[in-house]
């Protein structure tokens, strides 16, 4: 297949995906969406200010060209992979996905290239304040597992909770993180 035919096919495919779904699904959350996500997560998980759970997975690339296999393979995988990063809400609505990074990248490289945090870094986006125990916060946060670094926008589970209060909190965090894991398992099986 020629390069021109390939580009035309890709353009038509993208156009046919974007056209029917763009009005309902393919956009970043605006202030109204953020407010709805806050309410839903607080009602279901009792976590005010949480926008969703974030995670990524390695997707096996069986037809990776031989010349590219070095940059798409890393030591813990025997085969080339592409990285899929996803943010999902409690109703399993995937409102952010970032796909195509080489599987050889580590967690920080994935995070630094992800568009999900560009609004946080550039201080743009919807006004997303929320209040917890009388303290107002202006940054959204995501639940994540241990692969992600600690930051003000990423809340990781308490690894070894010592008292009952922390154990209960860690258990609720793990239950809320199941949202994203359900999505990733579903898409991996497809």
Strand-helix topology:
Layout: H1 3-21, H2 31-45, E1 50-60, E2 81-88, E3 94-102, H3 107-113, H4 118-122, E4 130-132, E5 135-137, E6 141-144, E7 154-156, H5 164-189
List keywords for this structure.
alpha/beta; 5-stranded mixed sheet; two-stranded antiparallel sheet; 38% helix; 190 residues
Structural summary, described in words:
- With 190 residues, this protein is of the alpha/beta class.
- The protein has one domain (27-189).
- The chain is built from 5 helices and 7 strands.
- The chain has helices spanning 3-21, 31-45, 107-113, 118-122, 164-189; strands spanning 50-60, 81-88, 94-102, 130-132, 135-137, 141-144, 154-156.
- The strands form 2 sheets. Strands 3-2-1-6-7 form a 5-stranded mixed beta sheet. It has a two-stranded antiparallel ribbon with strand order 4-5.
- A hairpin with a 5-residue loop joins strand 2 and strand 3 (94-102).
- The longest helix has 26 residues, at 164-189.
- The model has no long low-confidence stretch (mean pLDDT 79).
Output the radius of gyration: 19 Å
How many structural domains in the coordinates?
1
Class from helix and strand fractions: alpha/beta
User: What is the residue-averaged pLDDT?
Assistant: 79
Low-confidence stretches: none
Separation of the first and last Cα atoms? 27 Å
